[in-house]
């Protein structure tokens, strides 16, 4: 039997708008039984704050554009 005690969705809050140039890493996690939607986790780097992780709403147009841009960027080998 699967126990879900102490487990919660990592993306309970969605992050702010982001600049594509600050993206260091992008992770797409599948939808878990305890989450409503898939998790898109972005690691950003800024000079002032350093590295930060944010969750993005997969339904927002900005997130869809980011995913498309990131796939093209990765295919070019950067």
UniProtKB/TrEMBL annotation:
GO BP term, example: immune response
Domain Chemokine interleukin-8-like: 8-70
Pfam family, one: IL8
Record-annotated membrane-spanning stretches: none
Domain of life where this protein originates: Eukaryota
Keywords: Cytokine
GO molecular function: chemokine activity
InterPro entries (alphabetical): Chemokine_IL8-like_dom (IPR001811), Interleukin_8-like_sf (IPR036048)
GO cellular component: extracellular space
Record flagged with keyword Cytoplasm: no
Name under which the protein is recorded: CXL14 protein
UniProt source species: Pachycephala philippinensis
Gene name per UniProt: Cxcl14
């Amino acid at each position: 039997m699967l126990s879900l005690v102490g487990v919660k969705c990592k993306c309970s809050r969605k992050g702010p708008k982001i600049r594509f140039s600050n993206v260091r890493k992008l992770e797409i996690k599948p939808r878990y039984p305890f989450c409503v939607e898939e998790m898109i986790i972005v690691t950003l780097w800024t000079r002032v704050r350093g590295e930060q992780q944010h969750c993005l709403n997969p339904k927002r147009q900005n997130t869809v554009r980011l995913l498309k841009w990131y796939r093209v960027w990765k295919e070019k080998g950067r």
